[in-house]
Task: inverse folding
């Protein structure tokens, strides 16, 4: 059985986990390695580490912080932020990442997806798509592009990406739930796994993302960082409601 995945997200700025609303008004949420270790112990399926200002500041990802986070984990780690070339992907993998997420650089140079896949394999590549309405945004949600979400999702899949991380900027941090309609549209448009992101405030929202939007995985931040729910609590509830998550007995 292919289980649905629960993925806590660590948005990292200046070496600290932060969380905001629609990519602004950031609040401190702790140390990345400490947060990652806690969620691993609670039974998370993966951790997503996003260096949210690397592209905007035109710098590399915080490799030492990535390595420190990877060292405490027994589950896969996906890292994104500031990835501009295949060499960046290889370096992140060498520092402990299991998968690497690309966003802005791929929008500006779609061939980057082809190059990464040919050099390290599709299983290592997640393409992150930040959408406000139908429009794709880059540079940490600061800059709109002429690309449309569904068209870009299809191109990403056709070029060989292993997964898509779709974030609704309109919902990010609002705790109003995922944009189910657009997330489902992305899921239906491609044949690769889609991770739903943006807007979780309640376990019901995770259920809706997996069952109504048909996402393969759900990503959340605020509900975990600020103690609304534990990963273990989410897993038990989803399992009890019939969602094909990893059995609670198999979790940490």
Result:
């Amino acid at each position: 059985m292919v289980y649905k995945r629960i993925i806590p997200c660590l948005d990292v700025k200046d070496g600290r986990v932060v969380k905001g609303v629609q990519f602004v008004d950031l609040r401190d949420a702790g140390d990345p390695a400490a947060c990652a270790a806690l969620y691993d112990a609670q039974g998370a399926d993966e951790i997503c580490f996003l260096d949210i200002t690397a592209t905007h500041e035109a710098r590399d990802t915080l490799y030492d912080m990535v390595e420190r986070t990877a060292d405490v984990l027994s589950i896969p780690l996906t890292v994104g932020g500031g990835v501009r070339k295949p060499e960046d992907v290889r370096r992140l993998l060498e520092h402990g990442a299991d998968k690497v997420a690309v966003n802005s650089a791929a929008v500006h140079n779609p061939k980057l997806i082809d190059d990464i896949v040919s050099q390290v394999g599709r299983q290592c590549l997640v393409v992150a798509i930040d959408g406000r309405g139908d429009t794709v945004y880059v540079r940490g949600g600061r800059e709109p592009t002429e690309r449309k979400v569904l068209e870009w999702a299809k191109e990403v899949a056709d070029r060989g990406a292993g997964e898509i991380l779709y974030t609704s900027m309109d919902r990010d941090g609002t705790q109003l739930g995922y944009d189910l309609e657009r997330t489902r549209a992305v899921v239906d448009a491609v044949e690769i796994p889609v991770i739903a992101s943006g807007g979780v405030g309640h376990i019901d929202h995770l259920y809706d993302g997996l069952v109504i939007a048909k996402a393969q995985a759900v990503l959340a931040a605020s509900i975990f960082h600020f103690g609304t729910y534990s990963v273990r609590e989410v897993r038990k509830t989803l399992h009890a409601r019939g969602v094909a998550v990893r059995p609670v007995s198999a979790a940490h």
